[in-house]
Amino acid sequence: MPAFPTPSPMWIAELFYSVQGEGLLAGVPSLFIRTSGCNLRCTWCDTPYTSWNAAGKHLTLDAVMDYTLAHSRGHVVLTGGEPLLAPELPELSRRLRAAAQHITIETAGTVWAEGVDCDLMSLSPKLRHATPVGTEWEARHEELRRRPDVVRRLMHAAGEYQFKFVVRDEADLAEVDEWVRDTGAGRGRVLLMPEGTTVEAMNERGAWLGEVCKRTGYRFAPRLHIYLYGNRRGT
Ligand code: SF4
Known about the structure:
It contains seven helices and nine strands, in the order E-E-E-H-E-H-E-E-H-H-E-H-E-H-E-H. With 235 residues, it is of the alpha/beta class. The protein has a domain at 9-164 and 172-179: TIM Barrel. The radius of gyration is 17 Å and the shape is globular. Iron/sulfur cluster binds at residues 38, 40-42, 45, 47, 50-51, 80-82, 108, 126.
């Protein structure tokens, strides 16, 4: 019997090779597998084609693997949308592991996926400011976005973890502290990114956020891909 006998379709928004823009591995050329579909609806979602207007193609795991191994130089990022919602993700992660890929999973940390394997669990819980107030998604998003029990499990399901928080203003910092308290995360593993999808917005907010990081000990994290490519798909 073959090791991976059941090629099943995955809902894929895009596959692309780029430079990791965020987090501890910022700057590392990486192959991105972006699934479509999300259980949240952030106001500022920068991939609305995976959430508010989810779309994509259904590809077999074999097709995803073929593309990945043809283009990857060793680092693969499983992202979304919410990749942990994809039923095929555990098998995909195991196949990538078997192919000696370094795997990062980028998740909002609201769902657990049994059997998922990765090197770096990149957790990005959504803060209150992301709630789409006044929309039909408000109550659902608010109910789902904060799951410390799930986040704690995910933190220990991988070799390493990091937290990435999109920060808008001072009000967000108390929430970040709350997450650190609830999870026991080390400060050096907590990265704060200025909210914004333009270089101008990030520079402006980043100047303030840099001072916050000096004061609190959290790490400052630019969103490198915005500087390199702008807020565009496939980057
Ligand atoms: S969790 Fe991510 S993909 Fe989902 S709505 Fe929020 S920003 Fe968009």
